[in-house]
Amino acid sequence: MNNPGMMPEAETPVIEYPVITLEDAADAIEKGGKFLILGHVNPDGDCAGSAYALAGLIEACGGEAKVSVPCEMPKRLKFLCGSNESVQLAEGDEDAYDTILSIDVASPMQLGDNGRLIPKIAFMLDHHGMGEPFAPNYVDPTASAAGEIVYSLYRILRKRGKVGVLPEVSRRIYAAIVSDTGSFKFSNTTPGTHIIASELVDEINNADDGGMDTAEVCRSLFGQRTLKELTAQMLAIQNLRFYEDGKLGAVIFTQQMLADAGLTEEEIGNVVDTPRGVEGVLVGISLRQLAADPMSYKVSSRANAEIDCASVCANFGGGGHVRAAGCTITAETPEEALAMMAEAFGEAVRAYGRD
Fold first, then answer.
1. Is the full-model pTM beyond 0.85?
2. What is the CATH number of the domain that holds 183?
3. Neighbour tally for 45: CB within 10 Å
4. CA–CA separation, 174 and 222 (whole Å)
5. Helices 146-159 and 22-30 meet at what angle, rounded to 10?
6. Which of 53, 99, 126, 226 is the most exposed place for a label (fewest CB within 10 A)?
């Protein structure tokens, strides 16, 4: 029996998609042509940075590339796009492209409206250990970010002599990695991550193309907040809830709350960091009521301990990393949605305490 909070399962047969190598992906890029790169709903720095770095690699190899995410690109990430704005696809627009691929997308649900393109997706590149492949795929859960995968592609193409030094590609890769590691604070940061970052820092800061240095990249990602983003953080603080003797922190945003505060879904940003940042909290979760379906709630979770958020989210049709995962649930009311997640993550917190 399905969990009552699960989104209805699509009645489609399970397909076993082949695994590809990065050499295969590099071969596809070398062939050129027109590429469409798909990112996930609510794009973050890793999604945007990786997608546009990949576009830069394709263009450097003589191809053309467009990026499509199924919603507005957040303002703070638009510096990564250059003049290549994300495209919104009408029915049939995909026929203009020779190759469609995705980056940093773990499951069909994360494609949003672009999910209709799944039968035409040539391959997917991802780093989430728990997901649902929907195309031939290269998935490396040891990579801190999809940006590390794009970095590996960059090095393969340089070794083949197909591209030279590309500082703008390196900036985008660096932004992707810095974003998904929380400025190298998160547990997904590995020794290899630091080695890659050091090489990117050297390449970026010694470039003479007039572009940003790494300090400016980080300032654009983290050092600037709009008044509405600060309002969102204040609203999150005002609505904090705690469970499991303060070990589980939660915040919920309803559409009414957003309307009353004059906020959009884009402007509430990564509010999951607010409950997670409270002393003593082992897991922070955020819930956001979706405008398209008021009975649906987008859930994000982050752990400060070895608590498997991905397994909890997988029970509701989602997934992600051990310490960072998400899902979408259905509930009659916001309080029911919050209670459902408090119980699910509360059990994970209690299990951690028993270990």
1. no
2. 3.90.1640.10
3. 25
4. 13
5. 60
6. 226
In a domain, 27, yes or no: yes
The range of the structural domain enclosing residue 263 comes to: 227-354
The answer on 210 and 341 residing in a single domain is: no
pLDDT band at 355 (very low <50, low <70, confident <90, very high): low
pLDDT digits (tens, 9 = 90+) for 20-58: 999 999 999 999 999 999 999 889 999 999 999 999 999
Place of tokens 């997308």: 105
Residues 189 and 264 in one domain: no
Q: What's the rounded Cα separation, in Å, for the pair 86 and 70?
A: 9
The span from the CA of 21 to the CA of 198, in Å, is 25
Over residues 174-195, the pLDDT tens digits come to 999 999 999 998 889 999 999 9
Of 222, 247, 272, which residue is a domain's last? 222
Q: At what angle do helices 214-222 and 167-180 cross, to 10 degrees?
A: 40
Among 169, 187, 222, residue at a domain's last position: 222
Pair 152, 176: CB distance under 8 Å? no
The Cα–Cα gap between 136 and 83 comes to 30
pLDDT tens for 73-116 read 888 899 999 888 899 999 999 999 999 999 999 999 889 999 99
The total number of residues shown for the chain amounts to 355
